[in-house]
Amino acid sequence: MSTTTTIEEEKKVNAGLRDYLAIARPDEWIKNIFVLPGMLFALAYYKTPIDFSLLLKIITGLASTCLVASANYVINEYLDADFDKHHPIKKKRSLVVKVANPFLVGIEYFIFASIGLSLAYLISVKFLYTAMFLLFMGIMYNVRPFRTKERVFLDVISESVNNPIRFALGWFMVIPSVGLYLDNKWDLEFWDTIPPLSIIIAYWMGGAFLMATKRFAEYRVINNPVVAGLYRKSFIYYTENKLLISMFFYAISCAFFMGIFLVKNRIEMLLSFPFFALLFAWYLKIGLLKDSPVQGYEKLYTRKWFMLYLFIFTVLICVLMFVDIPWLRWFLIKTRN
């Protein structure tokens, strides 16, 4: 360790209570809005009655999701501190400029994780397993020897898997409580409650597109391959072209699997495709800007027209999920030779 580094560390002050709360990132709980599509699709699919019991499950489920996500944020901030100092924005984070007690960080992680999983158990076993998977992916993404965030392309794939996990959490919040494990096998009712694989992959690839666009923006704003590699090892192997090509792949994959799901399960949603394509194109346009706002959600909020469009798009999706349009069945009719 260099003398300069030692002096810098000696100048750091110990983290306080506010700093420990900050690394749980309660301000980023808004990201858990990604459970909403899972809830909407499940409501439309199962026609679950909306009553007080369902509302209580949703509130409990959201609380559980937020707490488990915070547990992941805690270890992310602690283990990334030495790397974030090379990022022009993240170098201002609490644990980069202050010294944290690893024991207290571990206690904080345990508290968030245990309460989050305890609440998950109150929803259902399926919800609990999904919440545990979200927690597990946080370990895979951040903790060595796994630390998938340092692997080229795998960093995007492994982080964006949180999107379909959140979708599944939203799904399991509202589905009927059926499915038992009997005689060493699951009954058919259990499998009937699992989200279709096509929508899971589509949601995953959509998240990968968003994450790859964020990586592209970060790579450009750092504007130095050596420094970028110090911040995130996967950046050693990335180039702007590689990231752009991967973004294209994720977007096409998302559209393909989304089409499969909609044709099989909700033909009305086909009307959303032009708006869906515009959403991706607009987001890409923002991602290509200098010092792009896609690096952080707090910056993305400054794009008021985009946020307004996102709101309108969400309303459209909600309408198409619950309003039947019989004439669209024409697309499913087989034509005769």
From TrEMBL:
Q: Which residues cross the membrane?
A: 29-46, 52-75, 95-121, 127-143, 164-182, 194-212, 243-263, 269-286, 306-328
Q: What organism is this sequence from?
A: Chryseosolibacter indicus
- Name used for this protein in its record: UbiA family prenyltransferase
Q: Which domain of life is it from?
A: Bacteria
What keywords sit in the KW lines? Cell membrane, Membrane, Transmembrane, Transmembrane helix
Q: Which InterPro entries match?
A: UbiA_prenyltransferase, UbiA_sf
One Pfam family name is: UbiA
Where mainly located? membrane
Protein localization: Membrane
Coiled-coil ranges per the record? none
Indicate how the chain sits in the lipid bilayer.
Multi-pass membrane protein
